[in-house]
Design brief:
The protein is α/β, with parallel strands linked by helices. The protein has two domains: 246 residues, Rossmann fold (3-Layer(aba) Sandwich), CATH 3.40.50; 155 residues, LarA, C-terminal domain (2-enoyl-CoA Hydratase, Chain A, domain 1, Alpha-Beta Complex). Helix content is 32%, strand content 26%. It has 17 helices and 20 strands. The strands form six sheets. Strands 1-11-10-7-2-3-4 form a seven-stranded mixed sheet, with helices on both faces. The longest helix is centred in the middle third of the chain and has 14 residues.
Length: 409
Amino acid sequence: MTTAAVIGGAGQVLTDDEVTAFIGDQLAGAGLDGRSVCVIVPDATRSCPLPLLLQAVHQALDGRVSKLTILVALGTHAEMTASQLKEHLGGDYPNVLNHEWWKPETFADLGTISPDRVGEISDERLRDEVPVRLNRAVVEHDVALVVGPVFPHEVVGFSGGNKYFFPGVAGQEVIDLSHWLGALITSSSIIGTPGTTPVRALIDEAASMIPADKLALSVVAQSGTDSLHAIAFGDTISSWQAAAEISAQTHVRYLDHPVQRVVSVMPPRYADIWTAAKGFYKVEPIVADGGEVILYAPHVTQLAAMHPEIEEIGYHCRDYFIGQWERFRDLHWGVLAHSTHLRGAGSWDPATGEHLRVQVTLATGIPEDVVRRANLGYLNPAAVDLAVYEDDPDTLVVPNAGEILHRLK
């Protein structure tokens, strides 16, 4: 592993010219002439100035590489339409692919990770053989270039780097295993954890099986803007590490005391609760026992567009599933993980049921009966007056929620 090249840092804001020049210089010296390059980028649920970044990448590589493909890392999110892609990417580029995770022919088989190795990586929390499948576009290019932001993340610690492969453009098996491993550790324990967490180690193990050379432009975005604090370029591990260190200084807000209530105001980039749940993950650590998190998102009308199973099982703490594992083990573990991540800390007893630390309330466009059936609280979004909450000393209102992690000092 090499040391990443870095421009910017915490407290700095880069100009567009600085961004473009840095990307041009780094890619010029990366030995890419005549090689085929697959550029892996985030979908619209991640914020960064992607049009600026892609324009700089295209300018640096067009005509120099033998083939240039852009692959959108959907994970298991909804497909982006042609018009959405044009806006998201900042123009019409040739060879743009959605990660079509719903089609078996999308994937190439890279091998398996053995139960012993999974046990070693996971501190024996899991012992399963896991097939490693990846979008074949990555495998069919000489170089895989990840371009995307790094933020505190509920499953892996900090997002970015090899996470753009797994789960970004991966098969369901690694997605399920990695997310369930994160759920076993718990979101509040792993989110914003620096360095290599067990989930990150699992992702890196899978990524080591990719035959393409793996490079990354890992960016640290100024949340809520189209600006960047920093960019790191190098292999997918060193560049991610450099960006994660800056993200830890930039994307974490520390409070002196727990709060009784948080209102997370969710921006439109989160189209369902599957993605808008980040408004809970990022504030769970600061909510007092018995407190409440309100996800205020009038634009959201469904729990999970791509994962209807969540309506059947609802939202529950980790121990609810572990205590009844035979009942739930055959469902997608990624869905179980999402369920526990949004419900937060709690316990389950076969006699007395579920005991949850924090109440989760949806103030969304989802019908009340759907919300309550999913084991969540309901609030009519039309009745929400943010000014009243802002004046309440027991309430913290978080605008543009979902990216900045809140922790207690």
